[in-house]
Amino acid sequence: QDASGQGKPLLALSPAHRRYMCSLSFFHYSEYLVTAINNPRSLSLDSFLLNHSFEYNLAAFSSWVEFTLEKFACPEMKQITWLSTVGLLMVVFGECLRKAAMLTAGSNFNHIVQNEKSDTHTLVTSGVYGWFRHPSYVGWFYWSIGTQVLLCNPICVVGYTLASWRFFRERIEEEEITLIHFFGEEYLEYKRKVPSGLPFISGVKVEL
Predict the structure, then answer these.
(1) Where are the membrane-spanning stretches (predicted)?
(2) pLDDT digits over 99-146, tens only?
(3) For 145-165, what is each residue's pLDDT tens digit?
């Protein structure tokens, strides 16, 4: 009990949980905000990415269930401060990298892979795109895993890593087929010089 004689609620938010909720809220709000700045013509409620996919919502729900169960069964697991701090740093890194990629790409960035090249569509290779071919995906990859490290969710750390890696491998291959169609040799040369940024993902294979 506290000084007032009232017991603390069993589900009182821990510092890690508060940071997670702030990170999650900021991620989705900033997706909408940056889209509004970069590409207002494509702006809609979907720009929040709250309805990204059934799998995304299931992953979020799973992380909440794991956190709650482990908080009851093994509360000391949720008090590993250094591990939670590592997770927070991953979240901040991933968030900053993704938003830097979106701002650098400008109107070229879209949440949906484009199948037709517009008149204003250009190949962006400067800024963070000089580090990685797909910096927005790299940022999202480490942000998503970081949220689970922040929560000290060992099961979801593994699950998020595998699921995110598989999703981005398929997404990158799909996107690079389109980019090769749009930019031809210009993109192939860029692809040869700059890594994808994600571990063990080289992108679509091209016969030389």
Answers:
(1) 140-163
(2) 999 999 998 888 777 777 777 789 999 999 999 999 999 999 999 999
(3) 999 999 999 999 999 999 999
Cα 91 to Cα 108: distance, rounded to the nearest angstrom: 25
pTM attached to this predicted model: 0.89
- Which residues have a Cβ under 8 Å from the Cβ of 196 and sit 6 or more positions away? 132, 133, 134, 138, 172, 202, 203
How far apart, in whole angstroms, are the C-alpha atoms of residue 157 and residue 105? Answer: 30
How distant, in Å, are the alpha carbons of 51, 165, 190 from that of 99?
Answer: 19, 20, 21
Amino acid type, 80: I
**Residue 208 corresponds to which tokens in the numbers above?**
């030389």
Read out DSSP for 58-112? HHHHHHHHHHHHHHHH-GGGGG-HHHHHHHHHHHHHHHHHHHHHHHHHGGG--SS
